[in-house]
Structures are given as C-alpha cells and as structure tokens.
Known about the structure:
Blueprint: H1 5-20, E1 28-30, E2 47-49, E3 55-57, E4 65-71, H2 76-92, E5 97-103, H3 109-119, E6 124-127, H4 130-135, E7 144-148, E8 154-159, H5 164-192
Parallel strand pairs: 4-5, 5-6
Antiparallel strand pairs: 1-8, 2-3, 4-7, 7-8
Amino acid sequence: MRHSRRSLLVACVALALAACGSRTENHVRAAPAADDGKDRKSAPNFTLKDASGKSVSLSDYKGKVVLLNFWATWCGPCKVEIPWFVEFEQKYKDRGFAVLGVSMDDEGWEIVKPYLEKNKINYRILVGDDKLAQAYGGVESLPTTFVLDQQGRIVGQHVGLVSKSDYENEIRQLLESRAAVTSGSFALAAVANQP
C-alpha cells in the first residue's frame, strides 16, 4: 500500500512539534561510540534511478560513511535538514563520506527535479517507493535518516528532526575511526617491511 501524503504529513508535523518541545532519545537510535561494529545490521541494498536517469545502488557506496535520508519536498523538518546535508557533503566528501537522499514524494521526479534545482542540492537524490520503505523497517515518518559505516552497516537511525551536531558527531566518529584503522594499517605495514 502506498503511503499517503497526508499520513506522512501528519507524522512529519507531529515529529516536528515534538522536536520543538523537548527532544527525547526515542527519536535517536544510535550504536554506542565504543562499539566494535560486530552487532551492526547491514543496510538493505537497493538500486534506483537518480535525477539524470542513472542507476544507483547503495552498494556503490561501500567504503564510505553514508548518511541515507528519506525525505519529501513538502516535509518541514526535511527542509531544515537539507542545508546541513549540503554542508556535510561539501565538507566531508573528500574524506570518504556521502549523503544519499531518497525522496518519498508521490509525484516523483515531476516535483523533485525542480526542488533540487531551486535548493541547489549537491548530493545524489533518488526517488523511493513503498518496497524500499518496507525494506528499511517501514519508514512511516519523514525525515528518517540512517547513518551507515564504511561496510554498509547501520550505525544510527534518526526519526524526525534531530540536531545538526548529532549528525556531525556521528559522521566525524566514523570518519576518524576509519582514519585510525587506515593509519594503523600503514604503521603495521611499515614495521613489517623493516629489515
């Protein structure tokens, strides 16, 4: 069954109002900072078309930290987050990070393409469907955002509007853990290659 715009709008407004009051931890489910990643669940892979008609798979992003955002053009909290995501894409893309937006607009590209141009969105956008929403646990509210590690595993899930700093802290932790692993590998290789 297709999510009706009205039911998603009601959920979106309710979450926005809750976020404006007191933010609770019910809106954020994130893995502990010290977790070793063994218990992380793999994000379901998918293939969708982007605005240029090119097929894009989530698996194309293996090796990168990914912010996977389910959103819609009519969603108020989504409009608040988009400039943050534009900034994150610009700031961290050269460090192995990418934002991937999945629009849940019923009208599809007809409404999404003009929105992308008007808002100068610099990250890849795809148009999702109910099948994808169900694969991700039944995305019922917008925005819903997943933070994925370099192996494509879910580190955090955010339902509703959360703070910019929450996202940025998760992104930095994952990028820094990758840098530590990489530099540790180089150090071990250097030691192994010494006479």
